[in-house]
């Protein structure tokens, strides 16, 4: 029987990072440390936070040995295939987001898409996703939910979108998840309280995995009696109208 040769390509490791400035190995499995110690090629959202993260998890690793490419909203997509060349030459690559899991609300999804096209094995590692942790904690429909990313900035478009998500939630029995730029959180919270129906449930999940973590689900009517300071605090919003 003829044995097929092993695939000489390296792997693309999807490496979750911390959701804030907490102790890495309190929220990350040891497998991430092992991969960071073996891999020298990285594709990251921003270089400085990535280097700090690698140094925090693996202090003995030489920073000079690292080869780092950035992929963010300013990246020319045509450059990305070249970043994966080490994998084609047998070297594995680590893909890092600024926070949480690569490819989820993150520009790294384009890297993963191209890796599949090139026949590179994609290996997701276990780690924190603020979206899933919020959904787990919300008490809403974990069998049927949608992540909607950022809502429109324009006041009228935002109001229309919020009402549409609420109607969709009722019609499909579906939890609706979305996020906001942290410095606009207080305005978002005020808009939700003024636009949504009184009996619609709203989950506010902020600073997930941090010592300041706050997660609560209440009706909009109940939230109207609450004052929260969400300014510059990473927050996930989930609504469901029953």
Automatic annotation (TrEMBL):
Keywords: Methyltransferase, Transferase. Gene3D superfamilies: Cobalt-precorrin-4 Transmethylase, Domain 1, Methyltransferase, Cobalt-precorrin-4 Transmethylase, Domain 2. SUPFAM superfamilies: Tetrapyrrole methylase. InterPro entries: 4pyrrol_Methylase_sf, 4pyrrole_Mease_sub1, 4pyrrole_Mease_sub2, rRNA_ssu_MeTfrase_I. It comes from the Bacteria. The keyword Methyltransferase applies. The keyword Transcription regulation does not apply. GO terms for biological process: methylation. One of its GO terms (molecular function) is methyltransferase activity. This is SAM-dependent methyltransferase. It comes from Aquimarina celericrescens.
């Amino acid at each position: 029987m003829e044995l097929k040769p092993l695939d000489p390509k390296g792997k693309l490791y999807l490496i979750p990072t911390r959701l804030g400035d907490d102790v890495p190995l309190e929220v990350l499995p040891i497998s991430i440390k092992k991969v960071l110690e073996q891999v020298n090629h990285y594709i990251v959202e921003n270089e400085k936070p990535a280097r700090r993260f690698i140094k925090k998890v693996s202090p003995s690793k030489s920073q000079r040995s690292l080869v780092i490419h950035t992929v963010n909203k300013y990246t020319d997509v045509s450059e990305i295939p070249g970043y994966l060349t080490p994998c084609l030459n047998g070297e594995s690559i680590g893909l890092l987001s600024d926070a949480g899991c690569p490819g989820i609300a993150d520009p790294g999804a384009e890297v993963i898409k191209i890796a599949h096209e090139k026949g590179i094995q994609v290996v997701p590692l276990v780690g924190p996703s603020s979206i899933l942790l919020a959904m787990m904690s919300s008490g809403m429909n974990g069998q049927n939910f949608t992540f909607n990313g950022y809502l429109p900035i324009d006041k009228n478009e935002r109001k229309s979108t919020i009402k549409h998500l609420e109607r969709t939630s009722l019609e499909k029995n579906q939890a609706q998840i979305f996020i906001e730029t942290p410095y606009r959180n207080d305005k978002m919270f005020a808009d939700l309280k003024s636009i949504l129906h009184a009996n619609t449930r709203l989950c506010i999940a902020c600073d997930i995995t941090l010592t300041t973590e706050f997660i609560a689900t209440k009706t909009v009517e109940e939230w109207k009696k609450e004052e929260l300071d969400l300014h510059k605090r990473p927050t996930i919003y989930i609504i469901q109208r029953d």
